[in-house]
Amino acid sequence: MSPDSLPPGSVRSAAEVNEQIRALWLRAGGTLSAQEREEYELLVVEWAAAIRGEVIEAA
User: Fold this and answer.
1) pLDDT of residue 10
2) In b/e form, how buried is each residue of 7-33, taking b as 16+ CB within 10 angstroms?
3) Does residue 20 contact residue 57 with C-beta atoms inside 8 Å?
4) Can you give the pLDDT at residue 1?
5) Exposed (0-12), middle (13-18) or buried (19+): which is 44, by Cβ within 10 Å?
6) With bands split at pLDDT 50, 70 and 90, how would you rate the model's confidence at 5?
7) What is the dihedral of CA 21, 23, 24, 26, to 10 degrees?
8) DSSP tag of 7
9) Could you read off the pLDDT of 18-59 as tens digits, one per residue?
10) What is the largest CA-CA distance in the chain?
11) What is the tally of helices (H) and strands (E) in the chain?
């Protein structure tokens, strides 16, 4: 599932997104196609937002 296909307001944990990033790299064999690169970039943005949310929540 791509990050933009999530329902509005749905937030995944950084760990969940990180798992997806790892799976993407494994599927790609270490070399991303243009489409995979797009997916990776979206996932990294989502992961960063999740990390920020977790840090703010912890504070």
Assistant:
1) 53
2) eeeeebebeebbebeeeeeeeeeeebe
3) no
4) 45
5) middle
6) low
7) 130
8) P
9) 999 999 999 999 999 999 999 999 999 999 999 998 888 776
10) 39
11) 2, 0
